[in-house]
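retry 2 of 3: previous attempt timed out while embedding magnesium ion. Reduced batch size to 1 and resubmitted. Inputs unchanged:
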Amino acid sequence: MYSWSFFPIFQASDLFLWGLWVTVVYTFGSIVLGLVLGLALCFCRLSGNRALDWVAQGFQELFRCTPLLVQLLWFYYALPLLLGIDIDNHVAAMATLSLYAAAFYAEIFRGGILSIAKGQSEAGAAIGMSKAQIMRRIVLPQASRRMLPAFINQSVIQFKNTSLISVISVADLAYMASVVNGQTYRPLESYTAVAVLYFVILFPLTRLADYIERRLRVSE
Amino acid sequence: MYSWSFFPIFQASDLFLWGLWVTVVYTFGSIVLGLVLGLALCFCRLSGNRALDWVAQGFQELFRCTPLLVQLLWFYYALPLLLGIDIDNHVAAMATLSLYAAAFYAEIFRGGILSIAKGQSEAGAAIGMSKAQIMRRIVLPQASRRMLPAFINQSVIQFKNTSLISVISVADLAYMASVVNGQTYRPLESYTAVAVLYFVILFPLTRLADYIERRLRVSE
Amino acid sequence: QDTVEAVRSRGVLRIPGILNEDPYFNKDPRTGEWRGFAVEMARDIASTLGVKLEVVESSWPNSILDVQSGKADLAFGITATPQRALSVAFSAPTYFNSFVIVSPNPELAKLSWAELNDPKYTFAVDMGSSQDLISQQYLPKAKVLRFKSRDEAIVAVVSGKAVGLVNTMLNGLVMTKKTDAIGRVMVPQPVLSTPSVVAMNYGTDEKWKAFISAWAEYNRRIGNNQTWIVKSLEPFGITLDDMPEGVGFGG
Amino acid sequence: MSVASPAAADTILEARGIAKSFGQLPVLKGIDLALTAGEVVSIIGPSGSGKSTFIRCMNMLERPDAGEIRFRGRRVGARFADHGAEIGQGTLRRHVGMVFQHFNLFPHRTVLQNVTEGPTVVLGQSQKEAEAVAMDYLAQVGLADKRDAWPAQLSGGQKQRVAIARALAMQPDALLLDEVTSALDPELVGEVLGVVRRLADQGMTMAIVTHEISFAAEVSDRVVFMEGGVIAAEGSPQEICREPRHERLKAFLARFNA
Amino acid sequence: MSVASPAAADTILEARGIAKSFGQLPVLKGIDLALTAGEVVSIIGPSGSGKSTFIRCMNMLERPDAGEIRFRGRRVGARFADHGAEIGQGTLRRHVGMVFQHFNLFPHRTVLQNVTEGPTVVLGQSQKEAEAVAMDYLAQVGLADKRDAWPAQLSGGQKQRVAIARALAMQPDALLLDEVTSALDPELVGEVLGVVRRLADQGMTMAIVTHEISFAAEVSDRVVFMEGGVIAAEGSPQEICREPRHERLKAFLARFNA
Ligand SMILES: Nc1ncnc2c1ncn2[C@@H]1O[C@H](COP(=O)(O)OP(=O)(O)OP(=O)(O)O)[C@@H](O)[C@H]1O
Ligand SMILES: Nc1ncnc2c1ncn2[C@@H]1O[C@H](COP(=O)(O)OP(=O)(O)OP(=O)(O)O)[C@@H](O)[C@H]1O
Ligand SMILES: [Mg+2]
Ligand SMILES: [Mg+2]
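retry 2 succeeded.
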């Protein structure tokens, strides 16, 4: 029978907390960058300009149809070779995560914007608002409310995805777990600790998404 | 400058194809099992029985809020210890993937069923149909149409997730890529090959999902 | 029932095997056949016990889990450290492993561990391995990139992400034979060597531990272990002459 | 209480003391209404007075908090299946059809399949038998040529006529109609009212919730005015629609001539 | 073509030869209509005849394939901003309000904010100024007390009155109304028609698409009967509604008395 011992894990709690901090920073950073870029992608898709639409769609498909793991390795190893520049692992990790998030966020944004009834834009146009004003004051405020649950859920996935940046040697939570594994040979305990940390952070978020979704469903 | 050489990859194409086959089998198997289990979970959620609802929800949250990687390790190593039985890595991989898929599918199914207007069930009830008949003949056929795009998209993610089973030594596509890496030290080429294989399979699927979604949006 | 009895009645001895870890382990992915000196050692133990050998596929970090969780009876090629000894039981040393730098940059050849411990150097290492522990201890000031597998560490050096990698003598020799771009094996001073042992479940009975330790001690002293190791290096064209000066397996 | 009803032998459907609240809001405060065979009763009243809630209670789509529904003198129980002396909701609904404001056609079935769904699945008729009956009723509502169309291809008036055919195909003893023309373009109202008028002429027992006051006056045997969850006035069309005496009824009718 | 309009000096809004197809389907086949200051024109016609499409062309919500819209004699161009001799769509819409069948209130703004949105954002009025004007118009439609309510808390009739106030707050030269009562409970139709009637009495220039024939007859200076994408008949309410001579117009009107 296996004898559990969480003591070595507690001893290394500074490493776990540091790893958690790194995970949070990369998740949060890539969410913010992904949001900005995703919005840009979404506007390309909705621009009505065929070329922009196609480029944005191609970009999205590229990121949607290949595993993030492979993308990370590519960005870190292959892209610098192709471009003849040096890309640091931290930069590669943040960039790949952000692009990946952007591809998925763009789809959520697009769905949210398209879900706002045409009548709303028309009502804005009928009082003389410009397209930009309609988007900013009428469509986006309503769309963002409506897409909030999907956005939170995608961000939860993003948080979990961040665990993959350890493959290009960024010292996130999963990375720290492996380091502690190597030192203590307590992989079950360290994976359990990681699972608990993830759960403690993500559970409230999924609850929040569900709550907002329920409230929206009632109010509509 | 890196000099690309895909020759060693072609030499190992039998390994790649075998890995692809394993990936497809695990993906497909876990989609089917996840579908059945997800349907059961979804009915628990909608049963109106509080206890069933909570148990199902707890199960879902557990799988939604922790990384699949950690779940795989847990299922393979920790669960057998706790239960005092032996679990083969193939069984562990299939089971974890299926449970993970089920947690996400259940949410899609629930959303789809709830999205069918109450009037449909009432129309069924008004001609004397039982609850089971209404579910089977009225609600599910409509809900399944409507949730098809989300289902396909989740299955695309499932396909990509299957790449993680290599950590418990199931010889999938990602596993074969590392095998070939170790033989040839051509990781860029082998990861590129893997990315292309994933893309070639998943791109048509995401296109299909988009197409169906567009058609549904028009027809509603 | 003690472990010897358990293994005998089961008829198989189980060890974790790791892919792409020549000369320790490797598996032909087409035939599923295992090779490597760790496998030879395990086979010898199995024949001593009169049972068959079964290799359960695993990875370096997971091989410990395999013995901890009872999926395997023994794990080979483990570097014993006091902290790890609190989690698994270790046998007497099977051989001694020296730590080396593998780098295409000849300037590093003359440097000691202390001189390599400089922020201007970036090294690659595989996460959670014994060389990872060594670099934590001896290269705390240098930049260290940790990767999931040895292969990724190799790619980091080949693609210029790191100036060199830290690994064991055995692995280093094989890698330089497999790919030129990785450079050559260098042994910084002082020569660091740690015992490589066999890991067993922490709760194992004394009889089993004593048996494994006796096996390890005997075969190390008599030179069988070295023979198996050297034999495992043969397919790569490595002989004892390729070994740098002053480095051996006997400790 | 005895199971045999004390009401007239030809009472098809009867509501007794029906009360219903949604949360804190009392919507029905004790309603009695009996439908005699062949009778057409119209229910009028302001929005929110509980007309829909009441007519939905009549076939148990809404479960009353108090009071009971009786079908041909037998009490309707809480279960789907018959249980002892009580008949089940399934039995009730098999004999009492309902038509909704928003049609609620099954969008994944063709017109014909919408109509045959009940007879085949609930009554166990053969596909062939059900189709023959269905075509009969589709012809009655003037849509025989649309048998293979999908609901999405129909106009609102056509949808509602299919919904009526779907209810008729169960060969019900009574029909409940809840504002069946409210969701229609004004032009299309006529075609649906025409169908309802013909059903009344053929002697179908019906309870009709409607805002079409003149239609109600013309087609009904009796008109019921609901307000605030009670029946505030009741009588012949003449009494209720043309010579209203009840104050609030007068105010209500006046609004339609604004 | 000269930019100055040959039409009467007091023509506010004019459509000339408007044609529009959706894909292969021609919906408008050349429509001319001029709105003189203070005039109320009602547009009636069967469903699908192109009434909505036409009235939406009048403020360029729908871009015509051929023909032109002129506002106070100036041609409206394809751009949002004024451009040379042509005025932009933004300018047109600032002066010509529109009210929709389904209200289209902004659900994320209170009643007051719905009404001040245009004046503050488009006309650049200060918040205070806009609120004063808004409260004026809310009072006119009888909803001053609902200023802080959310659209979701209003009845259909109240929503439509807010939508009218929102259009009025832009102090438009003309108003376009597209079936503003069709989505309302029959009881609530009166309150909205009352507001429209008062606007007509105050001399607001309006084009009204409606199915309420008697209201159209009563309130309009002119009635236009559209059918199949053309104006099939046009004249005084008396000529069109009470003494129709056009065959299809007769058939159309007959359907409302079914
Ligand atoms: N499912 C429900 N949950 C909560 N309140 C409800 C529900 N259904 C109806 N109500 C409320 O009950 C009251 C009566 O509603 P009902 O639909 O029966 O009125 P109605 O007379 O049919 O009105 P209308 O003419 O507008 O159809 C209303 O105040 C309504 O808001
Ligand atoms: N955006 C659109 N795309 C395609 N066809 C359209 C579109 N808008 C309207 N149509 C079609 O144009 C025709 C005229 O529509 P329109 O809405 O102008 O009619 P209407 O006279 O307003 O009818 P109603 O009385 O039902 O409102 C109809 O056949 C309609 O299906
Ligand atoms: Mg109602
Ligand atoms: Mg219209």
